[in-house]
Amino acid sequence: MTRTILLWALVLAFGAFILDWLEYQYLVRVFSRDLYVACIATAFAAGGLWLGARLASRGAATPFEPNLAARRALGLTGQEMKVLEHIAAGRSNKEIARTLGLSPNTVKSHVARLFAKLEVGRRTQAVGKARDLHLIP
């Protein structure tokens, strides 16, 4: 980020130097305002194309791969993983129960076992630890 700021600062300083060198007051009288607008628009268009090409050339992010070793070590079941994903999505126990076709008490049991296995006391801690262990994206 610092490199980008310095680069643009140098570009702007160079532009100021060029304007001073060409005696800005003289150019204002000789050329119309439309020429300056066209020059600035061209510079911004070129900068936008350059920046777009740089951003587009970056590689795509690697797809998420769950840490199956951590899942096995913790002894998490498939249903507990589904509940954990729903917790990470911010759903309540009742919403999770409706979505998975379980009773709310069953969801509470899964959540309690998740807390015990992950050694946490809150939903946010469970999600944070699961993300740290690469159990969920």
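Second entry:
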Amino acid sequence: MNMTGYSESQSKKIIKQAKLILVNKGFQWYKNKRVGRVPMKIVEDILGFELNLKNDIMYNVHEDTANREETQYGSN
């Protein structure tokens, strides 16, 4: 979560949200309070961009959505 620039409390909220998603998908193991790690793919889906640990580069996962929003709000 360091790569995203989010604070510790924001990171905890993202992890909590990821755990809820995983529980809803049937992964009951994530109901445990002591579990503090979640798959990076779930975090990427929540944030809307890909985390690349190799070069500390973030790639846009929802590029089509970002483009639509820019057009909708007059950025393009």
